[in-house]
Amino acid sequence: MKKIISAAAAIALACGASITAFATDAPVLDKTVIKNVQGSTDPDPAQANTTVQFSCDPKYTVTIPKTIDLSTENTDGTFSGTGSVEAEDVCIGADQKVNVKISSTSGFTLSETGSSATLAYEVKNGTTVFANNDTVASFTNCESDSTELTFVTKTAPQYSGSYTDTVVFVISVGA
Amino acid sequence: MKKIVAALSSLAVAAAASVTAFAAAPRDVTRIDRSTDPQSADTLLSAEIDPAYILTIPKDVKVEFNALKTDFGTAELTQARLAKGKCVQLRVTADNKMENQTDSSKNLPYRISGETDGSSAEDISVTVCEFTKTGDKLGMFINITQEDWNKAYSGEYSDTVTFEIRYTGSQLGGSIIGSGTGGSDGNG
After folding, report:
1. Given B33, B41, B81, which is nearest A160 (Cβ)?
2. pLDDT for B30-63, tens place per residue?
3. How far is CA B86 from CA A117, A118, B40, in A?
4. Is B32 in contact with A61 (Cβ distance < 8 A)?
5. What CATH number is attached to the domain comprising B100?
6. Between the N and C ends of chain A, which has fewer C-beta atoms within 10 Å?
7. CA B118/CA B28 separation, integer angstroms
């Protein structure tokens, strides 16, 4: 008898337990309904048009290194260093590119701190040597891409010291 | 049973153990997107060029009997990358007399002269010599007068010449041979 009462009480407890139910969002119906009543369709003819559309605002992210150290001494006595210009999430017009230009007010010349010594250098990508204000990288629509640039002194340095220069990378979108 | 429990406990501890994961070092870059103003970024280029040089100096030289001027060899800066305004300074120190090997009271006086393009010194042991660029060279000669040869006793004579080299500020501003401003005591 006790067992029967215990079982019944457990069942009653279970039935009375509440469970949280989350309601789903009610779907918004934006559609054409085609009805067929007694052999005639509404609308007539029985067809519907659906507009497919997609929009993408132009976007890109270009990454420029803040510093490049010409710390590698080459066998010919010149010094060089590399840096990459990178682009990611590029989404622009079909005939457009994200262009990156380089400029140097010194005309690609390193200056020694504390003396008048200078050291000319080149900016290259592979065998291509860039001039001042040249476009050094161009990116079309892509998930990610990069261009590596090499900065190398034109000659072996005549004088020792600490040399610096600042270059400016300018980004633009165009043909 | 105990072994099974111990094994399961060990597996549970191992599964719960954490492993340290190091994040990649952040890159020092500037990110430019459509909203960035201006649409440009500066990059600082730098090059640290250490000074370096190779100065060659002559080794032993044999003076022939009665030779008034013997080529001692050349001191030459064969490689140089010096700071602007710096030089490799050469000081030549010598007793200016060769001693007889069997009787040190007997000696043969000599003088080291120096010659370079455009300048010379009768006695470079009392001058400052500076090398500033690759290719700078100084020819040196052992000079003995005929009078001293005539007074010399027979025997073997020798002396040691010391070359002191320093990397220092230039005093001569491009000339290799000074004009008696130095000295073998290291002053100048």
Report:
1. B81
2. 999 999 999 999 999 999 999 999 999 998 999 9
3. 12, 16, 40
4. yes
5. 2.60.40
6. N
7. 53
